[in-house]
Amino acid sequence: MLQQWKPDPTFYPSPKMAIEAPAEEVAYVAAPRDDGKPDAMCVVDLNEASDTYGQIVNRLELGVRDEIHHFGWNACSAALCPYAPHPYVERRYLVVPALRGSHIYILDVKENPKAPKLVRTLTADEVEDRSGYTRPHTVHCGPEGIYISALGSVGSEEGPGGIFLMDHYNFNILGQWEVERASQSLSYDFWWHLGYDIAVTSEWGYPAMIEDGVSLEDLGERKFGHKIHIWDIRHRKNIQTLDLGDDYQMILELRPAHDPTKAYGFVNAVLNMNDLSSSIWTWYKDGDDWGIKKIIDIPAQVPENPDDLPPALKDIGMIPPLVTDHILSLDDRFLYISCWGTGELLQYDVSDPFNPKHTGTLEIGGITKSHPHPAAGPVGGGPQMVELSRDGKRLYFTNSLYVAWDNQFYPDNANGWMVKADVNPDGGLELDPDFFVGFGDSRAHQIRLQGGDSSSDTFCYS
Amino acid sequence: MDTLSWVGYISLGVFHGINPGMGWLFAVALGMQEKRRSAVIGALFPMALGHAISIGVVVLIIVLAQQQISENVLGIACAVVLFGFGLYKLFRARHPKWVGMRVNFKDLTIWSFLMASAHGAGLMLAPLLLRMPASAAHSGHMHHAPTSMTDSAAMLLSAVGVHTLSFFVVTGVVAVVVYEVVGLALLRKAWFNLDMLWSIALMIAGVVTAGMIFWGH
């Protein structure tokens, strides 16, 4: 195959240039389900001039009970990184791991972005044999290939989970990434500061702790993750572990500053065992070491009707905010925080990463609340996976966390939906009253926007 | 060395210098990361050194081969390797795997050596090297004056030197102009596939080498 003559137009050297990118016309949304029908990759039309704007225009069916969850591109702006530039690959394939099924699907969206084609399936055996890991999760396009994190080790109830590499030309799995993992065993998300040769990984739980719903027993024993790990990316070595303390359980999404000269980022702690609050923390470079500091506490709420609480929360009598995702705008200014339990989406100005300012709140869904959407009435679930357009003007989010967990926290109605909010450039946001995409009895998880979004690309120039 | 050779070494230095993958892009990125122009300039010296070593290795191999095998066999071998390598790179896009922005002088020298070697930068000089009178003793082409070992060594060193100097100047000028004036938007608009052009250049060098063998030089 001959190469392209020009770099892929969706690659941008710096986040500043990516902000100028044209508006997205298509979204890809992972839609898992648990009723024996296959999971699907759904395509949502986002072209405002189109007759089918705000509708699902295609569903590509994948495996049954696969738990299609997070996914990413084969290539992105990291292809422009100066030490191994390869700008003539195309952003063309979606790499879609099945978090439960452990398969990895490769979808080609070049010919018709609205009709992804399945071009390769890496079976669970292939993934596990070649990588040593199982339950693949986060996908990032890196400077030398595709990096994928996984929750568990093959043949072990415990860990370690970790990262493996995939070739970005032929999608063969190259093997385990880590050389020296030190104390790291729990795994979840990862991202990096390429300008500092640093990767960061976070901790959720081993597969057995999550696959039948959150294990309250393990939670009581504080067995879920409470650390993040700092890695020397050149030597693939764990150089520092930052412990938030085991009061904090489940440390999930890592959002490093997009500007490669900035050495800080944000991570969410889902549950404080003392008061059920969630929190946001800033990790930062501190001389030769790294530090971490809590910057936002989000308290649990008292329900108006305690009788409506799901069985998992009946004894506790409170609604935990369950902050399970957040997204940082490409200008590193606004952080959007999903409170899946309390049905709120919060906007903070984090220009000063240690002094966040609360600038906006949306309400939709929520445990016992079912706060309505103008176009759909009361809805189940709450804000969960959140994605932001590159220009920072359009925020999209869905309501499903993980099928078994949806069933636990939203047993009455976990039907999937995707909504949109319009962002005021100076702070504040409001729901688009007309934009509501219903997924029926399927769930809706991660959103990826055509051409890239605010969590798909890494930039090597400021 | 005749004028054509000088022009050849200098032109190929220019060609290698404008390729972002050979150095200037990394120098610009280091300047942006450190937020100072001196980081751009500082990166150029190890890059030139690594490039020179990579070229030097190829020169050494060709000189040693000249002592052992006939000019025609060596010429045909070079032509085949050049053409084949270019063709391979044209159809199989691969790039050296290097991860690391926090680099010192040694790292950058090694990086530049790897980049130049993996792209066959030295190989591209083969047709010029084969024109060198060092081959006279074996070829029977008596129109070249016989040269002493010191003379040929000096000539080869100046060939590597003049190529590297032209590479250094062009890489440096492009890096500083992009860092100070033009900015990286250039990458999106003007960065056409130099790797493909590079592959074609390797193939042309192969054809030229073959031509030299068949029609004399």
Report on this model:
The complex is a heterodimer of chains A (462) and B (217). The longest helix of chain A has 8 residues. Chain A is globular. In chain A, strand 14 and strand 15 form a beta hairpin. Chain A is 7% helix and 39% strand. The two termini of chain A are 33 Å apart. Chain A has a single domain, classed as YVTN repeat-like/Quinoprotein amine dehydrogenase (Methylamine Dehydrogenase, Chain H), CATH 2.130.10.10. The mean pLDDT of chain A is 96. Chain A has 462 residues and is mainly beta. Chain B has 217 residues and is mostly helical. Chain B has one domain. Chain B is 76% helix and 0% strand. Chain B is built from ten helices and no strands. The longest helix of chain B is centred in the last third of the chain and has 34 residues. Chain B is globular and about 55 Å long. Classes of the chains: A mainly beta (462), B mainly alpha (217). Chains A and B meet through loops of A and helix 2 and helix 9 of B.
Query: Which of globular, elongated, flat, extended, rod-shaped describes the shape of chain A?
Result: globular
Name given to the CATH homologous superfamily of chain A: YVTN repeat-like/Quinoprotein amine dehydrogenase
Q: Give the neighbour order of strands across the main sheet of chain A.
A: 3-2-1-28
Poorly predicted segments of chain B: 135-144
**Low-pLDDT residue spans of chain A:** none
CATH topology of chain A: Methylamine Dehydrogenase, Chain H
Number of strands of chain A: 28
Helix content range of the residues of chain B, please? Answer: over 70%
Key phrases:
heterodimer; A: 462 residues; mainly beta; Methylamine Dehydrogenase, Chain H; four-stranded antiparallel beta sheet; B: 217 residues; mainly alpha; 10 helices; 0% strand
